[in-house]
């Protein structure tokens, strides 16, 4: 009688992962556990708002998993095209199934981004080619020009990041000055943008006007960057001649809720 174990093919070992942060690459070999935080295998920053050990990447079965081992902070996890997005709350875990997975999280006013690369993703895009009808906007939220300018102004330090892996978000006053707007106008538009995204199910954008003000800006930038609502290419809008006038006209022509 043949031994069953002799006829079973060996289980394929998960390939090594590569983590990219601030221009540096880190390799995680099969069976290893990789920790991320103020301390650990990837020591991100001496930021007291950040857990000493916040995230871990570890293997279980045939899959790699991203695990939130912190107690307070959440991370936004998305595929490279921004079509799939999930919030990784404390204690939660997600399988790493995409070829490139983006992880964005905030600690205090600082936002960080890292990417996880796997050479053998469990998920592959099997959608047919776009039909060219301009309707391939899965999960997108239409924004007016003024709304997009507001998000770009808040996310500018993150989008201009060149190997730092982090940035301090501007205050509303600084972002308003960058756009040449009054603070009142900026805050009104910020309310409109947050209300619009909140209606689409984006968490963390509603609340009071005191302690939650910074958190709301951070969450808006975190969502916009992770889901590719704004990209580095959009930075050109901030210095394009006529964009401010176009945004003013855009606001005048829209209903108040969309201005």
TrEMBL record:
Protein name: FHA domain-containing protein
């Amino acid at each position: 009688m043949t031994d069953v174990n002799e006829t079973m093919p060996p289980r394929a070992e998960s390939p090594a992962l590569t983590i990219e942060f601030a221009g540096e690459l880190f390799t995680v070999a099969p069976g290893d556990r990789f920790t991320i935080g103020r301390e650990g295998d990837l020591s991100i920053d001496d930021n007291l708002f950040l857990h000493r050990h916040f995230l871990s990447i570890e293997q279980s079965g045939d899959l790699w998993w991203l695990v939130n081992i912190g107690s307070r902070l959440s991370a936004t996890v998305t595929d490279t095209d921004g079509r799939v997005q999930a919030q990784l709350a404390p204690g939660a875990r997600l399988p790493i199934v995409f070829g490139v997975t983006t992880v964005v999280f905030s600690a205090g006013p600082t936002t960080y981004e890292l990417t996880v690369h796997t050479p053998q993703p469990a998920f592959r895009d099997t959608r047919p080619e776009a039909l060219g009808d301009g309707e391939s906007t899965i999960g997108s939220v239409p924004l007016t020009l003024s709304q997009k300018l507001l998000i770009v102004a808040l996310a500018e330090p993150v989008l201009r990041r060149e190997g730092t892996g982090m940035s301090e978000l501007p205050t509303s006053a600084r972002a308003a000055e960058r756009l040449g707007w009054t603070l009142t106008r900026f805050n009104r538009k910020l309310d409109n943008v947050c209300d619009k995204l909140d209606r689409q199910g984006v968490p963390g954008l509603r609340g009071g006007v005191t302690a939650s003000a910074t958190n709301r800006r951070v969450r808006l930038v975190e969502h916009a960057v992770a889901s590719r609502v704004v990209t580095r290419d959009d930075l050109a809008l901030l210095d394009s001649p006529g964009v401010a006038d176009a945004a003013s006209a855009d606001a005048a022509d829209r209903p108040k809720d969309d201005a």
